[in-house]
Structures are given as C-alpha cells and as structure tokens.
Design brief:
By secondary structure, the chain is α/β, with parallel strands linked by helices. Among the domains are: 159 residues, Rossmann fold; 167 residues, no CATH class. The protein is 40% helix and 15% strand. A 7-stranded mixed β-sheet has the order 2-1-3-4-5-6-7, sandwiched between helices. A hairpin with a 5-residue loop joins strand 10 and strand 11.
Length: 534
C-alpha cells in the first residue's frame, strides 16, 4: 500500500497553533481505513522551522507527500512543496484545499513542484489517486477532480468531481486526531469567546456540515457547497468558476454526537468548536429539526455540562462538554437558543459584517441592521455569548455606514474591532476587483497571495471611496467611538472628492469593477449614485 506523508502548513504564524486541521485529519483517517501507511508532520503545531521539515521529508521513502490549506497558508505551502521535491524527488507531490481549488491553473504554475492538484472535495479523489500510485501508475487523466501536468508539460483539468451525498457523509471515519501533537494544541485550548471556552483544557474542533445558503460576495466556499462549476476559458481550455448554486449537506445528529462522545472518551475533550460555515442554514434546510436533534442527543449521551444540568454558574468543577458554533441573524430563533443553551452551547459567532442596511443588501447577507441587533439581544438573554464579527472597507463603505455601526455598538453596549474587507480568491469580489488587486501588487498575483492573512491587516483594498491609510484611521476612530473626528474627516473628504461612488451589486452581480460606473450610468431609470447624507 502507498506510504503517504501529510504535511500541515503553518497558518497564522503570528499566533499560537490553536486548531487541529480537521480536513487533513479526516483525509488521513480515510487513507488509513484503506490500508495505506500514513504519517503526519504538523508544521503548524510544531513550529520547528525548515530543518525539521527537511528531516521529516527525508525520514522515509514516501510514495506521496500531500498538503493543502486555504489561501492564507500559501507561503508555508510553497516552502513545503519545494522541500518535498528537493528531498524526496520520487514522491508524488499532491496539493488540495481551498488554495488550489480557488485558482488551480495559477497555483500549479506558481508551484511547479506539485505533480497533481485536487480540485474541490477530496474524499473520493485522494483515494483514487492513492490506488493508482500504489499500482505505480502515473496517468491521472481518468481521475475526476484533479489538475495535473501532461507529458507535454501542459496543465490538464479533468472532469468535475461530484460531491458525496448526505448519506455518505455519515460513513466517513472520525478524523485521525491522534496523529497530531495534541498536547501542543491543548496548551492553547482557551479561547476568549466565553467563560466556558476560556476555561477549557482540552478543546477539539469538528465540522458537522458543509454549506451555507447565503451569497456573501466577500466569502468563498471553494467546491464543497455545490458552488463549483467548470467553464471554457479563452481558447476552449476548461477552468473553474464559482456560482450561487448550493448543495447543502450535514451529518446526522446521531453521527455528530457519537463523534463527540468518542472525542470525550478517548481524548478527554471538554469543549467542542463547530467549524461549520453556518449552523443555522442546516437547521433551516432540515425544516428546523437538526439543531434540536443534536441538542437532545447531546443531553441523552451524557455530554450535557453539569453546570447546565444543575442550573448553576459554570466553574472549574464542571463536568461535560460545552460547545460553540456559528449562527445567522435571520435564521436564529428564540426558542432554539434556549434548547442550545441547555445542551451546553456557550457561544455563537455572528458574521454581522455591518450595521448599515445598504451594505448588508450589497453584500448579499440576507439580513438587516435591526435583525442583527435583535439576534444579539436574544442570544444574550438565552445565556449564550454572541461573538459579533464585523468588516470595514466594503466597496460601498462611506461615512454614513461607519456611523451606523458605531451608533449600533453604542446602543448594544458592545466592543468590536472590525476586520478589513479582503477579496480572497474564489470570492465574487476577487473576480470583480481582480484588475485593481493586480494594480496594487504591480501585476504580481503571487505577491498578493503571499500577503494574504486573516483580514486583521490590510492587503488589497476594494473600497470605492477609501484608501488603505484612510481605512486604518477610520477603524481606529470607530473603535474609540470618535464620531466627532469621523464627521470632521467627512467634511475634508467631500471638499477633495465631492460625492461618493456607491455601487449597487444587486443590479450588476459578478461584473468587473471597471464596468460598474459605465453600467450604472447607462441605466438612467436607476440612480447612478445613492444620496448619502451627512
């Protein structure tokens, strides 16, 4: 059987390693289930540098060296594949994940050391590749969902790989967490999101569902939600595109709770973080039954924390498994929050993004500022800590939207430090603003990829009205609730620029930024610029 080394790239090098890579752990378990020999070098967990990476690659005669990540890990991934080809030249180098799926031709060009890339979901594709490698075959043309280098050196993208069905999800093994340096991750189990998360000693993360019903234009799904499609590029060459299509899938409540019980019994886990894009989407698609079923099964399995069972404040003597996840302002229900709290839910992350109705409409968030506020109030009343995420620097950001958010924070009594709107590859706004992105990096797309982080720093600016310096300063004024200086700067801004340009993406989805002004000017029945009052 094939001998495979999985390498987990360094993610957020400026931060401690906090999350065991669920995807790689699951693929490792699948490979082991099929009898392949598997080892893992967790570069993110160990943080031991280039020499340790080389030693791991030279430690055995690997048939396959596999890695993958989201785009923010591209710099580490680049180093991994370079080392893999240098120190294990006979191994087949395989890369997957969002970084490859978002732009397969570009990544394969930037990383000539990669032999084959997995585009989209890897559950079936990886096993088919391993079967061929085990038979010493090197023809990937019949494997769906890959991009590879033909004998001529030309890149070939094979047929699209269908997603596995909902029933097949429950046949997946549990991730091979034991292959990772868990003690290192458990040193950083505490998350400053809720009291229960902050007192956690052994946290692991799970993915109970795949998909989100929303079309947020700054977001990317990258082939695991039914959004992936193929199109013919110039010259008839097949390439990827990402659509509004959705194939929403989730594990059964029984599977989820069995897995959590396994995590508790084998590893002593006391907190579980759901990595799902949007738990409430699954609940609505299941006719509002899935999360109540998960909560009931959680309690029936004896996972309910003792503080919730005994209706007392949480303390270090509490026994059981608390959990946290993701929510959405329009899909959350007041009665559901009570059910989730009783089972052990401690925190719910809300991607509020803004408290400006105009921005929320343009983003495609499917909510309003009033509904955002209501969901936060309901969640607090249920005893669950809401985590309000917000973003500044959207294409239509202006002083009115900035003030809307600051005033909402004042009303709700919350503190928020917004992220910066970042056009990640695979998102709609990446394609809309690609020309502008390249301008900011002197035409060097790879420089942009290497600069991408977790949106806590500015990379490529997509705001129609503000530059990077202005966004940095305005965010600082927002955090300090300094409406006086925000008003003063608006007067200065208007004296220099006149009226703002407010694009309307609802009327022109998926257009290039350079065409927005022309298109809006050509439709005189619609206002070219919305009136923005001071």
């Amino acid at each position: 059987m094939a001998k495979i080394l999985f390498i987990n790239p360094v993610i957020r090098e400026e931060d401690d390693p906090k999350h065991v890579p669920y995807g790689i752990a699951l693929l490792a378990a699948l490979a082991i289930q099929k009898g392949h020999k598997v080892q893992v070098y967790d570069a993110n967990g160990w943080r031991l540098g280039d020499e340790a990476l080389r030693e791991a690659i030279e430690a055995d005669e690997w048939d396959v060296i596999a890695s993958g990540c989201i785009t923010t890990g591209y710099g580490s991934l680049k180093k991994i594949v370079q080392c893999a080809k240098q120190y294990a030249p006979r191994a087949v180098v395989v890369v997957g994940g969002g970084v490859l799926t978002s732009m397969p031709f570009e990544i394969m060009t930037f990383l000539p050391q990669v032999d084959v890339g997995i585009v989209g979901e890897a559950f079936v594709t990886l096993l088919e590749l391993l079967e061929r490698i085990d038979r010493r075959e090197r023809d990937w043309s019949a494997v769906k969902g890959v991009i590879y280098r033909a004998a001529s050196g030309e890149l070939q993208l094979t047929e699209i790989r269908p997603l596995i069905g909902r029933e097949a999800l429950d046949q997946l093994p549990y991730p091979a967490w034991e292959l990772f340096p868990l003690e290192l991750y458990w040193k950083h189990s505490q998350l400053l999101y809720s009291e229960e998360a902050f007192t956690s000693k052994r946290r692991l993360d799970i993915n109970a569902s795949y998909g989100c019903s929303l079309i947020c234009r700054f977001c990317f799904h990258l082939g695991i939600t039914g959004d992936l499609n193929y199109t013919n590029a110039p010259g008839g060459k097949r390439d990827v595109e990402f659509t509004y299509k959705r194939e929403i899938r989730w594990h059964s409540a029984e599977y989820v709770v069995r897995m959590v019980r396994y995590m508790r019994d084998r590893f002593g886990v006391d907190f579980v973080l759901f990595l799902d894009e949007n738990l409430m989407t699954m609940n609505s698609y299941s006719h509002w039954t899935w999360l109540p079923e998960v909560a009931k099964a959680w309690i029936d399995a004896g996972l309910q924390p003792s503080c919730r069972r005994e209706k007392r404040p949480h303390d270090t003597k509490c026994r059981g498994v608390h959990w946290g996840g993701t929510s959405h302002a329009t899909l959350v229900r007041k009665d559901l929050l009570k059910i989730l709290f009783d089972s052990g839910c401690s925190q719910l992350l809300y991607g509020y993004e803004s408290f400006s109705d105009r921005i929320l409409r343009n983003v495609g968030k499917g909510t309003t500022a009033a509904l955002n506020e209501r969901s936060l109030k309901w969640t607090i009343e249920a005893g669950i800590r809401p985590i309000p995420n917000q973003i500044i620097g959207f294409p239509d950001e202006f002083f009115d939207s900035i003030r809307d958010s600051v005033r909402a924070w004042e009303r709700m009594g919350i503190v928020v430090k917004p992220f910066f709107a970042t056009p990640y590859p695979g998102s709609e706004w990446y394609y809309t603003y690609k020309d502008r992105i390249l301008e900011q990096y002197n035409g060097d797309l790879e420089a942009f990829l290497l600069d991408l982080g977790d949106a806590t720093k500015i990379t490529a600016v997509i705001s129609e009205n503000f530059n990077a310096v202005e966004l940095l300063g305005l965010r600082e004024l927002m955090v300090n609730r300094d409406l006086k200086h925000i008003d003063e700067y608006e007067r200065l801004w208007r004296s220099r620029h006149g009226e703002p340009f407010i694009p309307d993406f609802r009327r022109f989805p998926r257009v290039q930024a350079k065409d927005l002004r022309v298109l809006q000017t050509q439709t005189p029945s619609q206002p070219v610029v919305e009136e923005v009052t001071a």
